């Protein structure tokens, strides 16, 4: 029997819900829209010629038809009701109908990965914002008028969705305890209020934020729209409620925990959702407030995979905020991360974001950076396997009658090969962008993306202020280590010819173990404060940045932006790649970001920090993660926690982009491999995101275990 509410304190409520979230997650429908509702909407609108209007109606109809349910302990509503088996046949038929008659409905390319601009909605409410759009619609003509009408359809759908939420709550009232009925009345009243009017309380603002996020996911297929800077969007409302006695800090924490639980139930595992706290405004003033601390503190009890909470760190960040973040990390909570505010702002300005706006950014999911509320930025489009291209160049050189005579000549060939790959990728992404202009449409997301309203354009039609595309270069550490070995073996010491090196790699070191050991251990590796190797990473970063700068993206000549973000691609691309000159065997994962490859930090964490900060990371706005891993047994004293804090601050002060820390013993990870059912909630940091260890592939698990586990800090 589930415990009754009046017997549950705040701690137990969150912990109980946490267990339920993990147990029922597989029942939640995919957050990309019910094909039954899409097909019905498209059939009902077949008399309308304008695709823009039909897309707006589909968004409205999806929001109207989304059913919600409420747990007896939840404090926020917004959890889609589970799939019903009797719907399966109709869903299959609907998918067939859509693919046959509307193959362009699911357009290619990225989506979401942003924080929305909700300030106008919070100021005007749904009805007030609708009046503003109606006025714009009245004064518009042609295509622009159709776009505004699609926005009105979407806004109508959002209002109906809020009504659905209120009805779901009221449906849960009969049979509830007296105390629970009072809570449900508050929840229903909040939903009824935001159906028409601007939010007037912390609860209402948080509730509306979540419903808009679900709406964009579900009705616009804008995946991974994130809560973002909750301390900035909700801080003033929280303080007002607190001062007026309408809210306690305990209830504020419980509501944020409730949001985190909903995120974990709604978003499939293996992705990423971000919250960010701290940072500075345009005048350089620190923005930390009480909600900043609550966003971090909420991780202590939820302890699930979502969200990551990034601290936007600068020299004026309060010591208490830094201290709380490090404390959580030292306790084995993998979700927090630190982002170098100065480095990131400098990078944003490189790509045309003015200084007065460069402070307002978000790690859109993992470590990719997008401007808040004004972004149609596509991330990780695509991932480049830098080491696969290296093997291709080695093979090409080995088959030449006159291969490169020196390292620089070899590098010229490699750079030319990588440049050609970048050019091909740009062509593909621009084709995807063109299809989105012609057949896309995200009217709900557009409403909350600057400057779609003022321009009268959907986000897929170029309405956003920032429309650049970010790509990611995977395996930079392996590449640097490999290039250093190649130069020494082939050109400096002349131990091997290029053909001889290729033969060893093609054999995956079978019969060449002594050579593999030499490649692995006789040469310095990135991450050990060796300038000769570290500089190779910096040189490649500068090359890919300059090469990407040559191109412009549709629809408005936006830049093509480099990154080194991996997500899970260091494992996937590593699996597809043969042995490399750094001693890595075929199929093994690459390094997972901008840090050293697994197990190669021979001189400890300080040397690794020094290596990673010898080159300028600011151009890598597409993301640059630095993972560290420490034994949990280290952090039993305040002094050890302080040393970890000092190390992280050193990284940030030296220009680090982002760092995240795993505090877990390798023995625990091996036990989780052997007995996964006993470690279902074990969360670890991967290439910029958090994931459950037991759901990783065996190769990825091995990669996490093999990372150097520092025994001192």
Explain what the structure shows.
By secondary structure, this protein is of the alpha/beta class. Among the domains are: 1-107 and 116-225, no CATH class; 383-624, no CATH class. Helices cover 51% and strands 8% of the residues. It contains 26 helices and 16 strands. The strands form 6 sheets. The chain has a 5-stranded mixed beta sheet with strand order 3-4-5-14-13. The chain has a 3-stranded mixed beta sheet with strand order 9-12-11. Helix 14 (386-398) packs across helix 15. The longest helix is centred in the middle third of the chain and has 33 residues, at 407-439. The protein is globular, with a radius of gyration of 26 Å. It starts with 9 loop residues before the first helix and ends in a 7-residue tail after the last helix.
What's the layout of helices and strands?
Layout: H1 10-24, H2 35-44, H3 51-65, E1 68-69, E2 79-80, H4 88-101, H5 119-138, H6 142-171, H7 178-194, H8 202-220, H9 230-244, H10 249-266, E3 274-278, H11 290-302, E4 308-313, H12 319-330, E5 336-340, H13 341-350, E6 361-363, E7 369-371, E8 383-385, H14 386-398, H15 407-439, H16 443-447, H17 452-455, E9 469-470, E10 472-474, H18 476-492, H19 498-506, H20 513-521, H21 531-548, E11 552-553, E12 558-561, H22 569-575, H23 605-612, E13 626-630, H24 638-653, E14 658-663, H25 666-674, E15 683-685, E16 690-692, H26 698-706
Parallel strand pairs: 3-4, 4-5, 8-10, 9-12, 13-14
Antiparallel strand pairs: 1-2, 5-14, 6-7, 11-12, 15-16
Helix pairs in contact: 1-10, 2-3, 2-4, 3-6, 3-8, 5-6, 6-7, 7-8, 8-10, 9-11, 10-11, 11-12, 12-24, 14-15, 14-19, 15-21, 18-21, 25-26
């Amino acid at each position: 029997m589930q415990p009754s509410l009046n017997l549950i304190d705040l701690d137990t409520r969150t912990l109980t819900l946490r267990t339920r979230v993990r147990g029922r997650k597989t029942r939640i429908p995919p957050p990309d829209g019910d094909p039954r509702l899409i097909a019905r909407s498209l059939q009902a609108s077949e008399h309308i010629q304008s695709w823009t209007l039909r897309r707006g109606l589909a968004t409205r109809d999806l929001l109207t038809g989304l059913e919600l349910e409420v747990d007896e302990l939840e404090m926020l509503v917004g959890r889609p009701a589970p799939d019903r088996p009797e719907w399966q046949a109709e869903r299959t038929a609907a998918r067939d109908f859509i693919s046959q008659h509307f193959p362009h409905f699911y357009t290619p390319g990225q989506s979401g990965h942003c924080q929305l601009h909700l300030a106008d909605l919070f100021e005007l409410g749904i009805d007030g914002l609708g009046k503003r759009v109606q006025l714009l619609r009245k004064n518009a003509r042609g295509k622009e008028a159709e776009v505004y009408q699609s926005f009105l359809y979407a806004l109508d759908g959002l209002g109906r969705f809020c009504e659905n939420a209120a009805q779901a709550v009221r449906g849960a009232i009969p049979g509830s305890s007296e105390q629970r009925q009072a809570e449900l009345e508050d929840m229903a009243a909040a939903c009824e209020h935001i159906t028409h009017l601007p939010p007037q309380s912390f609860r209402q603002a948080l509730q509306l934020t979540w419903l808009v996020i679900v709406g964009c996911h579900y009705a616009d297929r804008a995946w991974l729209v994130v809560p973002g800077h909750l301390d900035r969007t909700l801080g003033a409302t929280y303080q007002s409620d607190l001062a007026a006695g309408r809210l306690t800090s305990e209830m504020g924490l419980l509501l944020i925990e409730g949001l985190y639980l909903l995120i974990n139930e709604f978003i499939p595992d293996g992705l990423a959702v971000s919250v960010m706290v701290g940072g500075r405004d345009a005048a350089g003033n620190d923005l930390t407030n009480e909600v900043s601390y609550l966003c971090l503190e909420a991780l202590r009890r939820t302890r699930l995979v979502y969200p990551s909470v990034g601290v936007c760190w600068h020299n004026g960040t309060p010591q208490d905020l830094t201290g709380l973040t490090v404390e959580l990390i030292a306790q084995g909570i993998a979700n927090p991360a630190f982002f170098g505010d100065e480095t990131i702002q400098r990078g944003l300005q490189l790509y045309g974001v003015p200084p007065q706006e460069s402070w307002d950014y978000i790690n859109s999911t993992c470590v990719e950076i997008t401007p808040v509320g004004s972004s149609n930025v596509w991330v990780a489009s695509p991932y480049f396997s830098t080491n696969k291209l290296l093997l291709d160049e080695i093979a090409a050189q080995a088959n030449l009658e006159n291969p490169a005579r020196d390292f620089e000549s070899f590098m010229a060939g490699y750079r030319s090969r990588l440049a050609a790959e970048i050019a091909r990728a740009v062509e593909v992404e621009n084709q995807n962008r063109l299809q989105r202009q012609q057949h896309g449409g995200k009217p709900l997301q557009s409403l909350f993306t600057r400057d779609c309203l003022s321009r009268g354009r959907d986000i897929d039609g170029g309405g956003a202020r920032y429309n650049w595309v970010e790509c990611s270069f995977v395996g930079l550490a392996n590449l640097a280590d490999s290039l250093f070995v190649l130069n020494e073996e082939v050109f400096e010491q002349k131990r091997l010819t290029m053909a001889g090196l290729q033969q060893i790699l093609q054999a995956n070191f079978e019969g060449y173990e002594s050579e593999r050991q030499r490649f692995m251990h006789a040469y310095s590796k990135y991450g050990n404060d060796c300038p000769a190797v570290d500089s190779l990473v910096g040189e490649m970063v500068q090359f890919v940045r300059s090469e990407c700068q040559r191109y412009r993206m549709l629809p408005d000549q936006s830049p093509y932006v480099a990154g080194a973000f991996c997500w899970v691609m260091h494992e996937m691309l590593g699996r597809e790649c043969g042995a490399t000159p750094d001693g890595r065997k075929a199929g093994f994962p690459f390094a997972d970001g901008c840090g050293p490859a697994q197990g190669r930090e021979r001189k400890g964490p300080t040397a690794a920090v020094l290596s990673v900060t010898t080159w300028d990371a600011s151009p890598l706005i597409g993301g640059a993660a630095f993972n560290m891993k420490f034994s949990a047994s280290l952090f039993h004293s305040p002094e050890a926690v302080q040393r970890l804090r000092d190390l992280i601050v050193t990284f940030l002060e030296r220009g680090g982009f982002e760092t995240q820390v795993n505090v877990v013993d390798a023995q625990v990870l091996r036990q989780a491999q052997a007995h996964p059912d006993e470690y279902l909630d074990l969360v670890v940091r991967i290439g910029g995101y958090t994931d459950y260890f037991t759901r990783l592939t065996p190769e990825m698990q091995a990669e996490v275990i093999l990372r150097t586990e520092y025994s001192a800090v």
